[in-house]
Amino acid sequence: xxxxxxxxxxxxxxLGGPVxxxxxxxxxxxxxxxxxxxxxxxEQTVELLAENLADYRAIVHRATSEELPATIxxxxxxxxxxxxxVPPELPEAWLAHTKTExxxxxxxxxxxxxxxxxxxxxxxxxxxAETGTIVLDGSPNQGRRRITLVPDHxxxxxxxxxxxxxxxxxxxxxxxxxxxxxxxxGPSATSDIELDRVExxxxxxxxxxxLVSGG
Length: 215
Prior knowledge:
The chain is an alpha/beta fold. The protein is built from seven helices and twelve strands. The chain is 27% helix and 24% strand. The longest helix is centred in the first third of the chain and has 14 residues, at 42-55. The termini are far apart.
């Protein structure tokens, strides 16, 4: 018996189950846990997402699909961005109102080169209301993980309500586990032993989320 088997056996014993490993974890483990906490309408779920995003110090904006290009242009200008990283299949209309120089998502770019890029604009795969989390899966409208971790300013567009779910279990049902998933809860931050918060350590210092409705 390996150390792993001993540890898992102790866990199963503490949970009041059989000590021996089950024949199949898929069938022997109770999956009757809550899929979401409480009952919310679609509008309440979107509001909870906005609240939790803001709680994590992301900056939340609202826009209709018609307002989105102007909103993105305003955010880039407000950040003073001269360059913006663009995933290969980001909708062209999203950047129609900005003259910011576009930098294509090119695998040849080094981290040092990407560090000179001011902003990145992406779509997302799904957003989790209960945790205030945005999930990217490397799809063509989101680009490689590198372009969302190196530039200091990330603008992420979330379609509401169809890309918003209440809970992590509901998000997992929509995601492909074989894809490079990036789970983002607010701007990158860390704290030392004295709880001094430092942002932008291993990702963007500023995360702006645009909740887009209609179309």
